[in-house]
Amino acid sequence: MADSRSHKGAQAVLMSTADEIETAFYEALQQADIEKMMALWADDEDVACVHPGGPRLIGHVAIRAAFEAVFANGGVHVTLVQVRRVEGSGCEVHHVLEKVQAVTGDGLRTAYVLASNVYQRTSQGWRMVLHHASPGQQDEMQDMIESSSVLH
Amino acid sequence: MADSRSHKGAQAVLMSTADEIETAFYEALQQADIEKMMALWADDEDVACVHPGGPRLIGHVAIRAAFEAVFANGGVHVTLVQVRRVEGSGCEVHHVLEKVQAVTGDGLRTAYVLASNVYQRTSQGWRMVLHHASPGQQDEMQDMIESSSVLH
């Protein structure tokens, strides 16, 4: 029983920040680990996921089906180039620039993706409630237009 | 002075829910009202906006410049077809289906847009922190894939 509680404690630590959920999300993508992926989402029927150029997927069943289709080809070679955060009380919005690489018939191809990841603190710890991704620009230096670059 | 307090009271009511901010956001779009639009955003340098197919705009200056460019052609004829909400403590994520109509050389054109709107409760009341929009499908009935439609 002590072991069981200790195990639950370890789980709680795993989910103790939005950043840890985000790290686990991209690990699940890289590892094509569907159970790890689905464990990250909040227990809410209206969690949503938009893959680049795709429809909006609402709820665990639709989100799982889409990731299973992606993972049928193996893990996604994705790395985070940049993360910016808007932190609220029990809620974080992360603006993420993803670098995705794939070997195609034309060799190694690189694409950038603009993702908005939203996390809420729930009774189960931090969980993802939204992943909304759009195709980015080709040049990773141009994907964000910041106030400073407009003013100065 | 009583009038001044009364006016402030009305402002506070205006910002008292995420839904009211959302209503004001789409009114500002329809009315091409840049001051009304910018008053809705949280006072945070990392608020972000992604227009369909566009880059990510970070901060008030970049967001304002993009809306001013849109509004130079007048208001946007946009209506909300559907809104679903994930409600957290001090944070709401709205999945919105927008119907946008415009008269072009080919007549009246209709497009659907998938938007994720995120609101946080701040010391100034509810404010928008993210508007992330993507091109939707042509048929408004197909823009969301719900769990029930996959299972049954």
Please summarize the sheet with the most strands of chain A: 6 strands, mixed
Order of helices and strands of chain A: HHHEEHEEEEEH
Strand content of chain A: 35-45%
Radius of gyration of chain A: 17 Å
The oligomeric state of the chains shown is homodimer
Give the spatial strand order of the biggest sheet of chain A: 2-1-6-5-4-3
Shape of chain A: globular
Q: How large is the count of helical segments of chain A?
A: 5
- The first-to-last residue Cα distance of chain A is 61 Å
- Report the count of strand segments of chain A: 7
Which ranges of chain A are low-confidence, i.e. pLDDT below 50, for 5 or more consecutive residues?
1-13, 147-152
Q: What percent of residues of chain A adopt helix (DSSP H or I)?
A: 25-40%
Largest interface: A-B, 49 and 49 residues
- Mean pLDDT of chain A, to the nearest integer, reads 85
Structural class of chain A: alpha+beta
Description:
Two copies of one chain form a homodimer. The first copy, chain A, has 152 residues and is of the alpha+beta class. The first copy, chain A, contains five helices and seven strands, in the order αααββαβββββα. Chain A has helices at 2-14, 18-31, 34-39, 60-71, 147-151; strands spanning 48-50, 56-58, 77-88, 91-104, 107-122, 125-135, 144-146. The first copy, chain A, has a six-stranded mixed β-sheet. Residues 1-13 and 147-152 of chain A have low confidence and may be disordered. At the A-B interface, β2, α4, β3, β4 and β5 of A face β2, α4, β3, β4 and β5 of B. β2 of chain A pairs parallel with β7 (144-146) of chain B, so a sheet runs across the interface.
